[in-house]
Amino acid sequence: MRYEMRQLFEHGKSVDRETGMLCLKKGFAVNAIPVELPSGSVIKPVDESLEYCCFYYSPDIDDKLIYTYTYQPEANWTTYIDGESENTPSVGCRTVTSDRFVRISVREEDIDRSSTFGSVFCIENRERNETTPDWLIEETGSTCARAEAVRREGDIVLLLLSDTHYTTGCIWDDTIRSLQSVARELKPDGLICLGDFTDGMLSYGHTKGIAEEMLDDLKRVCSPLFTCLGNHDLNYFKGNPDRMTRQQGAELILGDEQLWYFRDIPDRKLRMIFLDSFDPEKRERYGFDGQEVKWLKKILKKTPRGYDVLVFSHVTPLPENHVWSVDIRNSSRLMRILETFNRRNNHSVIGWIYGHNHADQIIEYRDFPMISIGCSKLEAFNENKPEDAVTPAREKGTRSQELWDVLMVHPDGSMDLIRYGAGKDRHIELRKQTE
Length: 435
Prior knowledge:
Elements: H1 3-6, E1 10-15, E2 22-30, E3 35-37, E4 42-45, E5 52-58, H2 63-67, E6 79-80, E7 94-95, E8 100-107, H3 117-120, E9 121-124, H4 134-150, E10 156-161, H5 172-186, E11 190-193, H6 204-221, E12 225-227, H7 246-254, E13 261-265, E14 270-274, H8 290-301, E15 308-313, H9 331-344, E16 349-354, E17 361-363, E18 370-372, E19 403-409, E20 415-421, E21 426-428
Parallel strand pairs: 10-11, 11-12, 14-15, 15-16, 16-18
Antiparallel strand pairs: 1-2, 2-8, 3-8, 4-7, 4-9, 5-6, 5-8, 10-19, 13-14, 17-18, 19-20, 20-21
Helix pairs in contact: 4-5, 5-6, 8-9
């Protein structure tokens, strides 16, 4: 990630030599986000007289971070190697002999407050040997073949993912490569990410820098990009004091101050509605703003006749389908408006797609399908999941480490979700009446 090189040093901090965690240390400064260094990289200080200490981390991921409900407090999924890390500051270059991540501690007096990692250290030979793994090639071929097998003339094809939860050492680079490989073959009409880009536990500056680069990565896959705000995206999680306002979050993640919006695909007669579903300042944090509900009613009323409507959000609107709260704010009002519109307009609401639950599920007892997608984050455990939801098995370094969908919206309002990675393909048939 390019942000690593332009991050500011954090002053008054260093690294605890026993744990590898950040610690307060007067007179020192350190890069909080470890910088990835492929084997053969050379750390070269711009000032040859600079004394510094290196603290190394391996790309190995502790299983508890994948298979239990655990958030690493520094958003760092790498493993500290105390035996390779340095105890005493010294000058000169360092050559990395195997793939590593590094934090570097320097004396505060030796750098400016505005110093970035890249302005203090030059990393030579940092380019990785980007050999595409066999599993990615095979899964791309399989996914594209299955998508083409159900593709119809007039389909809308969208890449769909949610809950990436970026951390140092996560699978993001592979996820982007897998999206790019499928986009090259299928030429999708856009890409949708339903929120929780990061864990929301770092400083505002770090979260903003990382999210900006993730958004840039997604925009390079294909355009347009459609996003929703997740409950982690306001930097709110685990009592983080360095929060964003909802407007700051909207500007960062959505590219606009408006928290909810719609986009039409006129030649396919589809209206896609993207809703906001979390407000940390409310007593019931999960749910939908009163003004948002009024807006939705107005937008539905103005929807051209003959259009299908597809709704997206981060959080499910159904409280019985949500393990983290008893209620979902304004859920009943919202569903009543949508279902009334649906019945009066030839069942033109073809579905509601959401993330957040980190599990796959299709709910069919409402007037239109409610579709949950699993998390793109490398995670596989069954605790804190709704009843009947499915959590696919995951394993790093195999096709199952990835999880996202090719969403195919057919002209008759039915849909196919073709799974890349862990999980299964799903077909959603619409109960649409004949006029």
